[in-house]
Amino acid sequence: MSLKPKPVTVFGVPTDVGAGTRGASMGPEALRVAGLVEALASRGVEVADRGDVAGPRNPWMPPVEGYRHLDEVVAWNRAVMEMSAAELAAGRMPVMLGGDHCLAMGSITAVARHCRAQGKRLRVLWLDAHADFNTSAITPSGNVHGMPVACLCGLGPDALVNLGGQGPMISPADVRQIGIRSVDPEEKRLVREHGLDIYDMRYIDEVGMKQVMEEALAGIDADTHLHVSFDVDVLDPSIAPGTGTRVPGGLDYREAQLMMEMIADAGGADSLDVVEVNPALDKRNRTARLAVDLVESLFGKSTLMRD
To answer: What protein family does this chain belong to (predicted)?
Structure first.
């Protein structure tokens, strides 16, 4: 399958409102400094950087009724949803630069609505160390960046579940999670109960990335919209230190490259999130530069002699 030659819109979302550590708000600029827009343009992609969407400041408060900064999280996600929806309607591919991973609620809500309107099926690849399937009942922190998949699947506060109209926006059957290695005990129970399709690090170790990607991409066709939600903490901290929720034992460089190359081989993504880059915790913008390298592979740059 060849890559879809769709024009791309990049936009930043400079907030860490859903996170437990400050600094992801600087992620969009770190990715720009690392040359993300130029890297896509050099691949022949027609790319426009729309700048950053606007939203409220991060108040950095403790949880209220199980959620930290819920009003601010809703406001930022609404801004993401509106920007993503406008670009999808214009026939462009939205690339959201986060910010923390709670922002995927806005981008995926827009994509899910777009798929319904177009009569397309949705496949979400969730590349992450965490399942992000927490609810306020099972997480003491109240950090909403641990809840986006649950909210999208209908488990969460009304303001997020129904962000784009009557939720849930997606079904667990739409999601494939890759690289998972940190799931809370009660979250494990919820994940099993809802039948989430998880390719954890043990499974990747056992069968290899090639088989994992073949399984995760199985059934994708011309009527499928593929959304890739790329949290840089899916990568091992030894190669990607600049993120707020580091978990040892993540993807190495070759596994991550193969994952992105196989997505490109399958036709590429139709929308993309790049989130949780935290330059305050990084070394000389190393994590953002690696993220740009991997996004290039997602857009068809092969590290092998196959071009």
So the answer is: Belongs to the arginase family.
